[in-house]
Design brief:
The structure is a homodimer of 132-residue chains.
Chain A (H helix, E strand, L loop, with lengths): L8 H8 L3 H9 L6 E3 L2 E3 L2 H15 L4 H12 L5 H51 L1
Antiparallel strand pairs in A: 1-2
Chain A binds a DNA duplex (30 and 30 nucleotides) through helix 2.
Chain lengths: 132, 132
DNA sequence: ACTCAGCTTTACGTAAACGTAAAGTTTAAG
DNA sequence: CTTAAACTTTACGTTTACGTAAAGCTGAGT
């Protein structure tokens, strides 16, 4: 029998290096709905996966509200054509944002290369000066 | 003679599709230092470039304070070895963040592909049902 | 001279994402 | 039994990045 993994809020906060406060806040915003055993929250694998998605979304600049919208859509029984089309529209939109970000990152990377190169040049120049 | 381009705050706000308030706020935070002609702000090409960088940084989730730090470092005469090394350390750090984001984006893209595929399948299923 | 668009400053308001303090509960260890 | 660690709720505080009046200045057109 493969017992399903369980986590306390403390374990989860250590795992992802965030505060328990944050996790409770995400729950308050209805991004997480952990099981309860008495008063305590019990997190399962699906909660852990969700949290991972939340943090990834955050790193990409999505608001918690946006993330919730995606979750809701994902959770919904996508059974009607309008719903499916809404979902497709949203994913397309997100894809556009991500492409923009990819572009931004590439540009910034190039600039970083440039800055680094110049710094290194400067450093070797300084070295040369010290050796004369 | 190539006259250098000048912009009013309104022109700039329209160019980048942001409010004049935002531009003034960036100045308040010392991210922009436009020339003054009497009471009015005059923006030159370098200001436009800066603004572009600000917005790109924002899209990548950098705070205005972080962006300012980068600008300050970039503006500083990087003449001492310690300064150069600080700069290199920071660029390395930013590079790590960007790589993480690249990773995140790729993951999300894959998930979007998945969601889209399933939506499209569902849609064709519905179509099939309607035609029977 | 008038008006009106576009600019200015000053200042208070707001939403998001938590931080933090207070006060109580639960569970394992000594 | 009691102490300590980890959890709980409630609630007010804080930062960031602006929004939104309010009230006045300024230059171009009629």
């Amino acid at each position: 029998m493969t017992q399903e993994q369980q986590y306390s809020i403390g374990e989860l906060s250590r795992l992802f290096d965030i505060t328990a406060r944050s996790i409770r806040f995400y729950e308050e915003q209805e991004l997480l709905v952990p099981e309860r055993q008495g008063q305590s929250r019990i997190y399962h694998l699906k909660d852990k996966v969700r949290l991972k998605l939340i943090l990834r979304g955050k790193r990409l600049g999505f608001s918690l509200a946006e993330i919730k919208t995606l979750f809701d859509l994902y959770d919904t029984n996508l059974n009607s054509a309008p719903q499916l089309k809404t979902m497709l529209a949203i994913t397309e939109q997100k894809r556009a944002v991500l492409n923009q970000q990819l572009n931004d990152i590439q540009m910034l990377m190039i600039e970083l290369d440039d800055v680094e190169a110049r710094c290194k040049d400067e450093l070797t120049e300084l070295q040369r000066g010290n050796n004369l």
